[in-house]
Amino acid sequence: xxxxxxxxxxxxxxxxxxxxxxxxxxxxxxxxxxxxxxxxxxxxxxxxxxxxxxxxxxxxxxxxxxxxxxxxxxxxxxxxxxxxxxxxxxxxxxxxxxxxxxxxxxxxxxxxxxxxxxxxxxxxxxxxxxxxxxxxxxxxxxxxxxxxxxxxxxxxxxxxxxxxxxxxxxxxxxxxxxxxxxxxxxxxxxxxxxxxxxxxxxxxxxxxxxxxxxxxxxxxxxxxxxxxxxxxxxxxxxxxxxxxxxxxxxxxx
Length: 253
Ligand SMILES: [Zn+2]
Description:
Number of helices: 9
Radius of gyration: 19 Å
Oligomer: single chain
Strand order of the largest sheet: 5-4-6-3-7
Bound molecules: zinc ion
Order of helices and strands: HEHHEHEHEEHHEHEH
CATH class of the largest domain: Alpha Beta
Distance between the termini: 23 Å
Structural class: alpha/beta
């Protein structure tokens, strides 16, 4: 199931598969999400709004450098949004279904660790085989979740691994303790070279919010692989948009 909401499509965002049912539209300010190599000029022209106004309403200062994923308020423009899109309750029914577990575990999940696959394509099955046969992990797929990118699986699809279903510890970091208490989510892609897709980020936020709620995990414990103290790694890559991710998490709160 994929729905494209007018505002999100206009702003360059498309929801993944986990958008709840919508009812009743409301007017909301229009935001534009900056895409790769887009300039302020192009954005202003796209919406027919003077550059100066966009600068002003977003408090932009010289030299007006934009970053991919940055949200810009488009002054004087509103859009109809489906109010219940991010509603706290019905919103999560689908993801709840998806994340259903077979068994409870004694150890509490305390962290969420975000990874990239470091490969341009892939999916849970491919990584499972790799971890099982090449890395000799008896439980296979080292992560609890994989978010596909369109190369190897539908863009933004959340794949739930057996380690989550059976509430097994992960094999996604070289820290034994972190593997015990950290839920591992892997986004397919190599973010040393490029950024995740918008659908991947959306699905990631959705999943993280759900897991946070379910396990009472505070936001400071939503971390990147490279923040785990261990062997040096840049995972999930230099280009992973940390600030955008954090802002999106706050916004869907
Ligand atoms: Zn990693």
